[in-house]
Design a protein that fits this description.
The chain is mainly α. It has helices at about 15-40, 55-75, 85-90, 95-125, 140-170. About 65% of the residues lie in helices and about 0% in strands. The longest helix is centred in the middle third of the chain and has 32 residues, at about 95-125. The two termini are about 40 Å apart.
């Protein structure tokens, strides 16, 4: 099955599919938990303490899913970026554009390394700290999920750096996301 390259879709590897489907599953689980909680409250259904865990569980799952979703966004280059100047630089002088991209990615990687270190410290120091609502889930578990999301973002950012460095070494910009723009000229 061919992928329509005009949509600029990437070929997914097994790792990418696991991250994407896992994230989608967590967001779906959040929606299910929230829907259950809404119906319980709306219909004033007595749960006798049985469904009290759905509200904190939805909150915790949403937090972890957000970080995993951010990893998917980094993988697809859909994160927040100011691309206008970068696209113009890459079109005008590809090496300069790639160098600016590399600098930006290095800053992102520095931030992600600090965030990952913080998540590791928070996970280890809060592993047994109860966060209420659900007895078996601790703050350490929540920070572990956040750390996994940050680690995935870091992996995808490092892969982006490899592509940018390859573009700098070979003077190719056709496989660089921001280097691809077909419309307009510099003088527009």
């Amino acid at each position: 099955m061919e992928i329509d390259q005009s949509l600029e879709l990437h070929r997914d590897h097994l790792f990418d599919k696991v991250v994407l489907y896992g994230t989608t599953g967590l967001f779906t689980f959040t929606i299910v938990l929230t829907t259950i909680q809404v119906f319980v409250r709306l219909l004033n259904i007595p749960t006798f303490g049985f469904l009290h865990w759905t509200e904190p569980a939805a909150r915790f799952v949403l937090i972890v899913a957000t970080y995993l979703g951010a990893a998917v966004a980094v993988r697809n280059s859909e994160h927040i970026a100011i691309r206008f100047l970068l696209e113009r630089l890459t079109g005008w002088k590809p090496r300069l554009g790639l160098t600016v991209q590399l600098l930006g990615k290095l800053i992102v990687i520095g931030f992600l390394l600090v965030a990952l270190w913080g998540a590791i410290l928070a996970t280890t120091s809060n592993w047994t700290t109860s966060i209420g609502g659900i007895g078996i889930v601790t703050a350490g578990h929540l920070y572990l999920g956040i750390g996994i999301g940050v680690a995935l973002m870091l992996i995808y950012a490092l892969l982006d750096i490899a592509i940018i460095v390859r573009g700098l070494v070979t003077d190719r910009t056709d496989d660089i996301e921001s280097g691809r723009f077909e419309e307009g000229t510099i003088d527009e």
